[in-house]
Amino acid sequence: MTITRIGGLAVLLCVLSVAPACSQGDSAPKAVATGAVPAELQTGEAKFNANCSACHGAGGVGTSQGPPLVHKIYEPNHHGDAAFQRAAANGVKAHHWEFGNMPKIDAATPEDVEQIIKYVRWLQKQAGIF
Asked: What is the pTM of this model?
């Protein structure tokens, strides 16, 4: 098994492990990113890993501290890109999940968040979210 496939399998297992935490009754994504992250999204991936993954998990699959971003709730029609910008800049009062409030992320600039959004949207597309 290649490193990429092992990583993809690990992400899939993480998605399956957080599915019961979905309080909205939505099912977990059907698939997750199993290939290499495209070169143009690797900066966003690095910024996501530095600023977001501690709570939202590697590959956006969630942790016990924060919800999965690779989830139908965060599709563009429900949480547009501006919502991600506001969340990083101002924090978010808990409203979909029971993880507590999200603090603002001072270390992430609006340009950083733009790159992170592109990466998260790619992950979502890979998972069949939109």
From this structure: 0.75
